[in-house]
Design goal:
The complex is a heterodimer of chains A (208) and B (124). Chain A is an all-alpha fold and 208 residues long. Chain A is built from 10 helices and no strands. In chain A, helix 8 packs across helix 9. The longest helix of chain A has 24 residues. Chain B is built from 7 helices and no strands. The chains are: A mainly alpha (208), B mainly alpha (124). The interface between A and B is large, with 49 and 44 residues.
Chain lengths: 208, 124
């Protein structure tokens, strides 16, 4: 055994994040367990923020490369490991959007088709359009509001857990969530009422 | 912020929990807050729509496996990781060699001027 090499023969699945992070500094298997735990959540988050699978895969890979490179510097100061990962993901997505000259729209083909398989074609088209409008409206929200909705609806996180990730109190999360729903509702109403693009831009400015 | 704002925030939060996690009956939540359903109907519909739209997506199995293999490979090829995997005596020898080399460099850098001249005169 090497001086810096402490190999632990453990059942990694039964170990909590904090201990795994310490082990992962020396032990690839421990990092592998963290990877298995959080890859789907991070991918999911990035997928909705970027809008397509290829970009989501590229950025997810970057998140884990960065996490692996910097795991020795991670110190649990009340910020859970998963919150640290989400922050890396959030920053990379922000950089990604900065680098993009124009935004892309999420391809809904995969999961919407799956969700609507049991319904008639007319209903399918209508529902699909509504969902596309809702997704487009979500993606026009400020990043922190998008993050909140994704953590709540795709990750099933409580307000307290969302607060940990976003560095806000539970009360602040509730408040932001309420304002986000109101903004989203107004945005959808604007779309339905058929306001011109310029009018919508002005109204959005007022809402924010 | 008025009290009604806080009440509304709590109501929407509890209504969302009832819809997302089935923690409690939606009508029971509305009764508890004593708010007519029509006042929050549009927001409740929006929560249902969000639940329906923001479904969890999974990365492909091929991507998961490929990335894991790449991460492991990149870690193995890093210098620090390799150093850690060496046996203790090799690590000690490597450290000693590094320290010795460093000392040698320092000594050569700070050779006294007289010594340099002496060495130069031997050559001539």
């Amino acid at each position: 055994m090497g001086l810096f090499n402490r190999k632990h023969k453990k059942d990694y699945r039964s170990i909590d994040d904090a201990e795994l992070v310490v082990l992962a500094r020396d032990d690839g298997d421990a990092f592998g367990e963290l990877y298995e735990r959080y890859l789907p959540r991070i991918f999911n988050y990035i997928y909705y923020r970027t809008g397509n699978q290829q970009d989501a895969e590229d950025l997810t890979a970057k998140v884990f490369y960065r996490a692996m490179a910097h795991i020795e510097n991670y110190v649990d100061k009340g910020v859970p490991f998963q919150a640290w990962l989400y922050r890396i993901a959030h920053n990379l997505v922000a950089n990604f959007h900065r680098d993009q000259s124009r935004r892309k729209i999420i391809p809904l083909d995969d999961y919407v088709a799956h969700a609507l398989r049991s319904e008639g074609p007319d209903r399918q088209t209508e529902d699909r359009e509504e969902r596309e409008q809702l997704l487009a409206a979500i993606r026009r929200l400020p990043p922190e509001r998008q993050q909140l909705l994704l953590l709540k609806f795709t990750q099933d996180k409580s307000n307290a857990e969302i607060g940990e990730v976003m560095e806000r109190t539970e009360g602040a999360v509730k408040s932001l969530y309420h304002r986000t729903l109101l903004a989203l509702r107004d945005e959808l109403q604007m779309q339905e009422s058929g306001l011109s693009e310029a009018q919508q831009v002005n109204s959005r400015k007022k809402l924010k | 912020m008025t009290i009604s704002d806080v009440k509304m925030q709590n109501l929407i939060s509890d209504v969302s929990d009832a819809i997302l996690y089935g923690k409690s009956d939606l009508d029971a939540v509305l009764r508890r807050y004593n708010v007519p359903a029509q006042e929050v109907d549009d927001l409740i519909s929006l929560v249902f729509a969000l639940q329906d739209t923001l479904v969890e997506v999974q990365p492909s199995r091929a991507f998961q496996q490929r990335l894991k293999a790449e991460l492991i490979e990149s870690r193995r090829s890093s210098f620090v990781w390799r150093l850690r995997r060496l046996p203790a005596r090799v690590q000690m020898a490597a450290l000693a060699a590094l320290a010795g080399g460093f000392m040698l460099l320092l000594r050569r850098r700070f050779v006294p001027r007289e010594r340099v001249e002496e060495i130069a005169s031997i050559g001539s």
